[in-house]
Write a sequence for this structure.
């Protein structure tokens, strides 16, 4: 009788121990990048690249517009929760949070930025290198809060989520002449890859070891790009998708090179191109009804300030849409992609 009780409890304690070790393996989520991961830093910048107004955030807890380009939460939020940490990753510039909140997760991202500094300049947002400066400042505060030994452990064991690059093409290269006169598409890809490598080397020198590096999405299938597709209206721009695919192949090769070059570095390449393509090409399989247009407004071009509480025709149920606005996935799409990613993250880093 006694043994039949003891054995399940021993098993239960073992499970708790394993779970505790898994959570300890990733004590914090640290995020760099653009609007795909910015949890509200741009709220504190004089830029049009912000969304701290309705209907953004209408499905976020409390129905609050937080500065996330979404109706709810973003992938870093879901990943943080999935790894046993907090259900949201706070923005570093948000004054309602402090270092005790940031100790388990922080976002330095800035919507509208890119690997190319000139991309950030267009919308007057932070460059990726400014995000690194915030990371340095964060480390100083973290060491003062936790002590050097514990803070260094958090920095080395944290999961670093990096998601950036789309704006370099869709905001910068295709819309302004400067980079087009300097680079062909392949040369611009190489230029961005070089910048990405320099960025990774820099955060590695500051202690980062576990990186989740997101490639470009099928950017030709974003609703805004469908709208701008003059050759085949409302269809995906295959030319833009080809650029994203080519860039991603170069980024994957770069990941292999960096892991050989930098001892102890682990990088998981996140194929968001494939993840999002599945939702776009087989929406009904995932319970979506609309993949060509977004929830906000007509769904064809509204994003940022053009998606506001006065915008007519915004859908009632964003869960039926792959895209929330013409540039960004809905919360439900973010959750599906994050849930598919989590097993790979746990296998790579836990």
């Amino acid at each position: 009788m006694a043994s039949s009780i003891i054995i399940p409890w021993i098993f239960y304690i073992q499970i708790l121990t394993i779970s505790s070790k898994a959570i300890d393996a990733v004590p914090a989520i640290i995020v760099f990048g653009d609007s795909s991961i910015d949890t509200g830093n741009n709220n504190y910048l004089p830029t049009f690249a912000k969304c701290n107004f309705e209907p953004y955030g209408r499905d976020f807890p409390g129905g609050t517009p937080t500065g996330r380009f979404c109706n709810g939460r973003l992938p870093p939020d879901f990943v943080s929760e999935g790894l046993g940490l907090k259900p949201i990753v706070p923005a570093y510039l948000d004054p309602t949070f402090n270092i005790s909140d940031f100790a388990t997760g922080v976002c330095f991202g800035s919507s509208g930025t890119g690997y190319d500094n000139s991309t950030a300049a267009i919308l007057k947002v932070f460059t990726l290198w400014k995000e690194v400066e915030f990371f340095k400042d964060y480390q100083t505060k973290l060491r003062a809060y936790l002590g050097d030994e514990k803070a260094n452990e958090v920095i080395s064991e944290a999961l670093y989520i990096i998601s950036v690059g789309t704006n370099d093409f869709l905001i910068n290269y295709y819309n302004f002449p400067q980079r087009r006169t300097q680079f062909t598409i392949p040369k611009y890809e190489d230029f961005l890859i070089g910048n990405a490598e320099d960025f990774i080397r820099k955060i590695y020198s500051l202690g980062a070891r576990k990186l989740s590096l997101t490639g470009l999405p099928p950017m030709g299938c974003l609703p805004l790009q469908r709208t701008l597709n003059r050759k085949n209206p409302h269809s995906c721009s295959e030319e833009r998708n080809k650029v994203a695919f080519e860039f991603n192949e170069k980024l994957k090769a770069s990941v292999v090179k960096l892991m050989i070059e930098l001892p102890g570095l682990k990088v998981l390449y996140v194929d968001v191109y494939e993840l999002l393509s599945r939702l776009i090409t087989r929406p009904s399989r995932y319970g979506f009804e609309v993949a060509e247009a977004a929830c906000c407004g007509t769904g064809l071009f509204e994003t940022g300030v053009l998606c506001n509480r006065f915008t007519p025709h915004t859908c009632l149920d964003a869960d039926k849409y792959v895209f929330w606005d013409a540039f960004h996935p809905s919360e439900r799409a973010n959750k599906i992609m994050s849930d598919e990613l989590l097993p790979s993250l746990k296998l790579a880093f836990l």
Notes: The chain has one domain: 29-349. The radius of gyration is 21 Å.
